[in-house]
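If your schedule permits, I should be very grateful for your opinion on a structural question. What I wish to show you is a protein chain and, alongside it, a tokenised description of its three-dimensional fold. Would you kindly read the sequence against the tokens and tell me how you understand this chain to fold? Here, with my thanks, is the record as I have it:

===
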Amino acid sequence: MLNRIAYRIHQTLERHFPEQRLFLKSDTDTRFIRLRPATQIIAMAGGALALAWTIVATALIMMDSIGAGSAREQSARQQAMYEERLNALSADRDLRAEEAARAQERFNIALEQVSDMQERLLASEDRRRELETGIDAIQETLRRTIKERDEARAEADRVTLALNEQSGGATEMGRARDTLATLEYLTDALGMTADERNAELAQAEAAREEALRIAEEKRALETRNDLIFAKLEEAVTVSMEPLDNMFREVGMSPDVLLSAVRSGYSGQGGPLTPISLSTSGGAPTLEEQRANAILSGLDRMNMYRIAAYNLPFAMPVKDSFRWTSGFGYRRDPKGAGTRMHEGTDMAGAYGTPIYATAEGTVTFAGWHSGYGRHVKIRHANGVVTTYSHLSQIRVDVGQRVSRGDRIGDMGNSGRSTGTHLHYEVHVNGTPVNPMTFIKAAKNVF
């Protein structure tokens, strides 16, 4: 039965794939190779499989090439978008810095105007007091003159009565002459008294008009002072709010920072001695209180400026770069599992300048294990910044650096997969996200 089935299959295959013979002839002999139908089918199936494998492999290679090209284009677009955003942030930062400089200039001009107006106000007050004293003296003199006039009139009446009653050795002619002389004397005295009274009244009237004019000028000056004080108070409030928010966003109390700055700059006569407007030992007026409040605000802004200069509110890389890895847990690029990444990575060209982000002292500059060429800078208020994987170090231990000083070049030293800067910020020994400081300052500087 099986033989019959095999025979029928063989006959069917013979019709479609007849037996072929391949002859091999040499100088002495001729041989042939028999290609049975089954052998031909196996050869054709193998060829078909090889052809199919070739087509599939070619398609996979082409799809991979197309996908790689799309990924490169997408990466290039993202890089261009990041660079455009960084340029916009840089332009916005420059604009904010220019606005802060103009605001500082306006503050200085307004402060000079306040000082000048205060001097004029004090001078007008002294002049008003002098005029009031003069008016009091004139009125006293006028009262005394009227009293003397009344006394002279009474004396004239008494003398006249005495002359009329006088009798004896004096003749009538002598009494007449004496009476006439006395009357002339009294008339002259009364005339002089009247002239003095009129003059004093004129001076008093002129003094009153001058006092009214000075009072009007004082009211106008006070109105102008109110407007200037209101503008200054508004400007101080508007300028202070973003600074307060900046320090609170990084988890630092503004009051604690200002206390630390004052303790570090507390020498008398120094640039940070508390500013106040003198009241000459008397109770301060409302204008003096407002002026002192504005001066206190300017002093606080100056403290903020010093505190911000001592904290890392800046970018360590100013040339073109891209963010490659942020703060937090991540898969280790060298395959060591999931690990904490205590900083932020910025990839750029080899040798890109690296700058200090705040004023401080270099405490380490050299090779540090997996960090490669490594620089550590200690700042105020327990803040430390580190810069790793450098190609070259340009500072020494103990050197004092300022914000924007070049401290090294970007490289690939240490445990690194490519050229980049590993940047860390530590507050009181604890690593924090550097982007907190960078983002907090982007709307202020």
About this structure: Residues 268-278 have pLDDT under 50 and may be disordered. Residues 37-165 form the longest helix (129 residues). Residues 99-309 form one domain. The two ends are 98 Å apart (CA to CA).
